[in-house]
Amino acid sequence: MANVISVMQRYELKYLLTPQQLEFLKGAIRGRMELDCYGRCPILSLYYDTPDYRLIRNSLEKPPFKEKIRLRSYGLARGSSPVYLELKRKAKGLVYKRRVATKKEDAESFFQRKSDLCAEGQIAKEISYFRDFYQNLVPACLIIVDREAYYEVGGEVRLTIDTNPRYRVDHLDLSTSLDGTPLLEEGGAIVEIKIPGAMPLWLSHILSEGGIYKTSFSKYGHAYVEQVEKLRRAERA
Q1: Which segments of the chain are extended strands (E)?
Q2: What is the distance between the alpha carbons of residues 106 and 84, in angstroms, rounded to a whole number?
Q3: CA atoms 148, 150, 17, 85: torsion sign
Q4: CA 200 centroid distance within chain
Q5: Nearest CA-CA partner of 78 in 46, 100, 102, 104
Q6: Spatial distance between the Cα atoms of 137 and 222, rounded to a whole number of angstroms
Q7: DSSP string, 134-198
Q8: Which end of the chain has fewer CB atoms < 10 Å from its terminal CB, N or C?
Q9: How many C-beta atoms lie closer than 10 Å to residue 170's C-beta?
Q10: Cα–chain center distance at 165
């Protein structure tokens, strides 16, 4: 399969919703937004980090610049189904994402320094430089969500709704299962609004009417903190 590279630059705003707020939001965007080509789909994101979790520890300190790398699949990765290696950076609220479509085996070989995913181009150089700079990147945490992805009809807004977010720190493979430890209470949802610039007025009014306010929430960060707390409790027991 040929490697396909894509570049994204946008603002990504996060919201934690109650079941009631989620029901309101879905009704309010009807007619303005439609499900995209993936529709409703489980998404698996395998985050790579250093053995001492340098990337996520830095991210949790909320610096002006942070970065992460992950391998993503839409549904369980099977056979030759594509997966996506994503290098994601955030600077002063603006998110820059470089993405390469590849195969799971090729991505694993890339992290083991046996090959490069793509030989030429600035984006390929950035991804390879990231791997080489952090040196020993290994699978650290698998995040799984059930996602509904929407796009604005005739516009540039994208909106995702992640329900049943969960994680695991064992069996770190995109083809094993969809099981994991819940990150939220049952019925809650994580909403991300992705915009190239200012928030459209129609969407701003919907959020205000629903009492939906921006928050800061990292799925990988939340999972990491939970695991650290579990280890501390086990040590005290």
Answers
A1: 4-17, 33-49, 65-74, 83-91, 94-102, 138-152, 158-168, 181-182, 189-195
A2: 11
A3: positive
A4: 23
A5: 104
A6: 20
A7: H---EEEEEEEEEEEEEEETTS--EEEEEEEEEEESSS--TTS-S--EESS-TT-EEEEEEESSS
A8: C
A9: 7
A10: 11
Please name the amino acid found at residue 226.
E
Residue corresponding to tokens 């707020």: 21
Distance CA 86, CA 182 (A): 24
Contacts of 29 (CB under 8 A, 6+ apart): 150, 159, 203, 206
Digitized pLDDT (tens) for each residue of the chain, 237 residues in all: 445 547 678 999 999 999 999 999 999 999 999 998 877 899 999 999 999 999 999 999 999 899 999 999 999 998 888 999 999 999 888 999 988 888 999 999 999 988 887 656 778 788 999 999 998 999 999 999 999 999 999 999 999 999 999 999 999 999 999 999 999 988 999 999 999 988 999 999 999 999 999 999 999 999 999 999 988 888 887
Q: Find all residues with CB under 8 Å of 140, minimum gap 6, and list them.
A: 47, 48, 49, 53, 56, 169, 172, 220
104 forms beta bridges with none
Residue at token pair 């998404």: 43
Is the CA virtual torsion 11, 7, 31, 144 positive or negative? negative
